[in-house]
Every structure is written in C-alpha cells, then in structure tokens.
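Figure-free illustration: sequence to structure, shown twice.
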Amino acid sequence: TIVLFYLFKKGKDRLAKKIVLDLVVEAEKYFGSDKGKRKKQYVIREVYRRFPILNVLLPRKKLDDLIEKCVIELKKVLD
C-alpha cells in the first residue's frame, strides 16, 4: 500500500509539473513580458479549470511553488 501511494504521488507530481510548465509557456506567449502577476493568476486559474481534480490533489501553496520552479526552468531554457 505504501509503495502504491508513493508511486501515485510521484506520478502525480510529474504530471502536475508538466501541466504547469505547459501553462507557464502558454501564459508567456499570450501575455508577453513584464506581466508576472497576471501570468501567474492565469496559470492558477487554468490549472484548476482544466483539471478540476487538481483542486483536491494539488494545494494552492504547492501550486505556487511549482509555478515558481517552472518559471525558473523556463528562464534557464530561454537564456
């Protein structure tokens, strides 16, 4: 049971990161630069709108942290 829970959580985390990263890229394309707060709000809204199950599986604080990590990752790729 513990192993199954671990595997589920690990898979969920990877999936959530992929979803958030895709939305961060989408927000960057749509809003352009210098609109960080608006882009973050967009990503949060879209994550929960497109994937309602993440309302339960991905708490807001964790989503905020994940967005920040994805933004940093995207900046590294673009530099």
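We now fold a second protein in the same way, so the two outputs can be compared directly.
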Amino acid sequence: MFQEPPARIHPYVITCKQCKENIAAPVQTMPDSWIIHTCPLCGERRRYLPAEIFKGRLSFDFDAWARKVGRL
C-alpha cells in the first residue's frame, strides 16, 4: 500500500514577514533575544523575536529550495 511521507516537523521555524512562508530559523536552541535572518525565498532581511519562533512544518517552497541546494 501507499505510505504517507514523513511528517517534516522542524524544531525551529519562523514565518517570513514578506512572503508569509514558513522557513527554518537559523538557530540550534531557543534564543533569548531577537535574531536577524534573510529569507532564502524572497531575500527579505528581518528581525524576529523569540515569540515568533515555533515548532512546525516548513513550507513546500522552502522544502523544495532546501532540497535543490542540498540543505535538507
């Protein structure tokens, strides 16, 4: 039978403020202060507070981009 793809839950995800896609946050642990990250999809560089970092699924576009450049 068919198997579902594995649930790709990423531990640290942020939502880009311009393109609204879920992208991987560039952190290994939860930060105490804000971080600066450039979205690889739209190129927008923004600040993100720790409250904006969450555990969740990466967007399909980011997942495809990461596979293309070999990041996942």
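Summary for the second example: Residues 60-69 form the longest helix (10 residues).
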